[in-house]
Amino acid sequence: MSQGYIKTNRNNFFGHSNNSGSFDFREIGLTASLRPTPRLQLSGQLLHRRAGEGSSGGVHIDFGFMDYNFINTPSAEIGIRLGRTKNPFGFYNDTRDVPFTRPSILLPQSIYFDRTRNLALASDGGQLYGESRADWGNITVQFGVGYPQVGDRSTELSLLGQIPHSGNLKSRASYLGRILYEQPSGRLRLAVSGSQVNTGYDSGEGDILNSSGSVKFYPVILSAQYNAERWSITSEYALRHFRMSNFGDPKFEQHLTGESFYLQGTYRFSPSWEAVLRYDLLFADRKDRSGKKFAAKTGYQYPAHNQYARDFTVGLRWNITPAIMLSTEYHRINGTAWLSSLDNPDIAHTEKNWNLFAVQASYRF
Known about the structure:
17 strands, 16-stranded antiparallel beta barrel, 3 helices, 5% helix, mainly beta
């Protein structure tokens, strides 16, 4: 479980954080695992999450799946997972639901968007996985087919933007996979992740959008990490191909490629203290990095800074005990591309340059 406090001097993040600050960042998870046989494991997690208007609480199944091992030897492992399985992409998505596994309170928002967390975290379907273990290193391969979670307001607004509509997104079969290499010592880790996320649209009464409309995106992520005794360097780069089509109006058709990158360094002063330094960069459209074309296309109704974000982060973490952790961090941000329009309803009047300060206390048992 964790409780966070977020304070911004402009714009809102995870609640009404501007000026007065917000305690609307809370996660309480209960994870269970059962192994009826040596080859079969059942795992699941119930989660209560409050993160501003985009995640207003309640309890839901974060993930829950059956894992069956066909082969498990010292040199190889092959298995299948069925149910609501975690999506394997990047270094951090598999464990983003556990605060102790994150290098900072907020993951790099250019790749691990919190406004689309449900969509990114898990899918309903199946996943094949295999691992080869040798003296020169371990290779893990995962491939999944599933239906993404698109039923929440935050995901819907992130994919459809400010288009007025009365219908809902519907999930369609999607595909994802990751190949990860790791040296036996854990010193070097390399990964390639990719997916094809497919969603459709059910129009509502009097809707200006057609039911034949679809939203598809194809992210590809390259990941690299080097670990020494006291420090680690991590970097990830992503291209996100995005397409909206068949909505019945040319002005709702979109075909663009977003771009993301971050470079992060962590330093472990001792087993109890750790610092993080990161530069995070996001462009909604790599052919319009300044956002000026977007602003002109909307008749300057929306500002150019809605299309990019540059985030400089510095943070400190204190592992008080193995069960209790206290973290704090400061973000200096230029641009608003990863802000949620639920926390900022008047997205046209967001501020380009803003600061974010966060504190989080976490407990595990």
